[in-house]
Write a structure and sequence with these properties.
The protein has 303 residues and is of the alpha/beta class. The protein has a single domain, classed as Alpha-Beta Complex (Protein-Tyrosine Phosphatase, Chain A). It is 37% helix and 12% strand. Strands 1-2-6-3-5-4 form a 6-stranded mixed beta sheet. A hairpin with a 4-residue loop joins strand 4 and strand 5. Helix 1 packs across helix 8 and helix 4 packs across helix 5.
Amino acid sequence: MPRSICKKRSWKRVREEWSRQDAGVFIRRTLDKGIEGLREEFNRNPRIYDTAKCTVSCRNPELNRYKDICCHDHNRVHVVGANPDEYIHANYVGTEYNPKRFICTQGPMETTCADFWMMVIQQNVEIKYTSTSSPDAVVDIRTLKVNGLNSEIVVKHYHWRFWPDRGAPPPFPLVIRMLEKQYSKQNPIVVHCSAGVGRIGPLVLMQGILELIKRGKDFKVEDLLKEMRQSRAGLVQTVHQYYYVHAVLLEYFAKQKPYQCPLGNRQADFDKFMADYTKAVAQVDNNKSTMSYLPSSDLKTAT
C-alpha cells in the first residue's frame, strides 16, 4: 500500500497556527489604530471609583495606602485573623484560563505587612510579582520561604525593577516570557506595585490578552480592560501603560516563537508605531497631568 503523502498535523501545531492567526489580527488592529487611536480608546474607558461598592475599604482607611484607590467588596480577598473585617486591599482578577489568576494588591505598609504575608500563606501563593522603579533594567528572581504558624510555603518572587516612576519602559519581550511560564499554575499569582493598579496593570492585562488569543477568542482590548476594572478598580493607571501593553505584544507576536507573525507590507507601520511609542514615553516626565495618588494621610486635607 503506498504511503500517504499527507501528514497529519498534531493538535498542538493546529492550535499554534490558530494562535498565530489571532495574534496577526491583534497586530493588524493595533497598527490600524496607532498611538493616537489607542489614546482615544483609553480615554473612552475612564477610571471610575464607586465608593458604594467599596464599603469595607472605606471602613478601614488606615489599612489603605491611598485615599483615591478603593477596593471592591464583591471580590476582595479575605484574610482570616487579620482584623474584624478580614480586610486587606486586594482583589481577585480572573483571566480566560483561571477565574482567580491574579491577586492585585497594594504594596505592604507597616500596618499591613503581617496581613500581606498571612494572605500569601492562606491563598497558597506560589508566584509573586513586584514592580518598582530602579536604574537597573533587570528582573530579580528569588525563591522565598514563608513560614506561618503551622505551615511553610515556597514562593517564587519576580521583582520587576525597570519601570520608571512615570511613563513606561522599553517594550522588552522578557515580561511575556515570564508570564507564559505561569499558564499551568492554579493558585493565585500575587502582583503588587505601590497602589496595585498602575505598574502591575499592564502585566495583568497582557496575561488576559495572551490567554484569549491562545483560546482563539475574538475580543477587544478596551472591553477586556473594562471587564478587569470591574474586579480591580482603576487597573492600568495611565495611557502610557496602555501603549506599553500593545507595544510589548506587537514586538512579541512579530518576532518571538511560536508566533513570529510576518509583517509584510505593515513593516513601515510597525516601525512608526514603535517610534511613536518611544516618543510618547520620553515626553511623560514633562507631562504635568500625569495621574497621581492621594495618600491616606491626606484624608483631612484632600478634596
